[in-house]
Amino acid sequence: MPPSTGLDSARTAAEASAPTRRSLPLVGGGEPGRRAAVIPYREGAGGAPSAHAGPAPRSVRISVTDRCDFACTYCRPSRHDGYADGRLMTSAWRTMFEALRDAGIRRVRLTGGEPLLHPEIVSIVACLASLGFEDLALTTNASQLSRLASPLRDAGLHRLNVSIDSLDPRRFREMTRGGELSRVLGGIDAAIAAGFSSIKLNTVVLRGVNDDEIERLALWAWERRMVPRFLEVMPIAEGAKLVGEHLVTAPEMRARLAEHLLQEDAVTEPGLGPARYVRARRDPSLRVGFITGTSDTFCESCDRLRVSSTGELRPCLATDDGVDASREAMAGDPAAIRRRLDEAWRLKPDGKVWKGCTEETASTVSIRAIGG
């Protein structure tokens, strides 16, 4: 279990005077048609210390597409930042999935971009479900979920994470650069009706932008028996331009919810990521989660591998280091992919000294290209 931090006990109550709400600036510009950079593996490449001594990979985040219909201000510089060429076809994905299973991966999360924009996402889920992974989850902005919730559940998807940063339509449209809150709420309703084993809501909290909604979002989620989770903005990609002014730490978030929470240590779900959960005072079967990617990184316990939409195996979100396995996937050679996976895992930074998304390399990574 990660070492205890200030998150395990609520700090003093939040400041009485709420910050003035203000519009979030459009950061970066993006270049139309710009291709996402793919850095080939070279011995000693990258700025991260290697010789990782942590656990072998047991979970994987797979970015089935880098396309997204939102352009959230902490993720993309604009709606015109370009997309990657050479995305894997479904037949190559099946080879990739088989290789991951045979290499010992047990938990899979599909991400994007926005994974529900992939035209064969239901078939992809069905393929994964047929391979016997013990946990199959997906992260989505829910814009397409109304029509896909039931088909995904029927195909074998277990769990959903839905990104939602505001319950105010105008603010939501601003933070996503054009997203329609009504479509997202409709998608969440469809997911609840479909009967997923777990639905969690992810909110990136930005000071002076949406931090006045922490309580509202938590209560709204609990009313629907969902698990709200609040994330610190991380200094990765566009978030690096926001963290200095807009960071709200998890202990502060917890302090703002103190009257609703039990006074207990926040605990992780073994094998299900770095979030730490606290139970609700009114109903201990309800929980809220906090993810501390900035104030308290969790690299030492990380067992996560990432696969980009172009077939690159990446051992860390905070660097562009990776190993290209697209040729092996397209050739239908899972054994060769496993060898490439071993190469990629040797690039994983040593979590004892590596500070994840607070490292300098993180600011240049495309979070949309490899999944958040």
Describe the structure.
By secondary structure, this protein is α/β, with parallel strands linked by helices. It has a 12-stranded mixed β-sheet with strand order 7-8-9-6-5-4-3-2-1-10-11-12, with helices on one face. Helix 1 crosses helix 10, helix 2 packs parallel to helix 3 and helix 3 runs parallel beside helix 5. The chain is globular, with a radius of gyration of 20 Å.
TL;DR of this structure?
By secondary structure, this protein is an alpha/beta fold. It has eleven helices and twelve strands.
Order of strands in the sheet with most strands = 7-8-9-6-5-4-3-2-1-10-11-12
Q: How much helicity do the residues have?
A: 25-40%
Amount of beta strand: 5-15%
Strand count: 12
Oligomer: single chain
Globally, the shape reads: globular
What is the N-to-C order of secondary-structure elements (H for helix, E for strand)?
EHEHEHEHHEHEHHEEEEEEHHH
Number of helical regions: 11
Write the layout of secondary structure elements.
Blueprint: E1 59-63, H1 90-102, E2 107-111, H2 121-130, E3 135-140, H3 145-155, E4 159-163, H4 169-176, H5 181-194, E5 198-205, H6 214-223, E6 227-232, H7 243-246, H8 250-256, E7 267-268, E8 276-279, E9 287-291, E10 304-307, E11 312-314, E12 323-324, H9 326-330, H10 334-346, H11 367-370
Parallel strand pairs: 1-2, 1-10, 2-3, 3-4, 4-5, 5-6, 6-9
Antiparallel strand pairs: 7-8, 8-9, 10-11, 11-12
Helix pairs in contact: 1-10, 2-3, 3-5
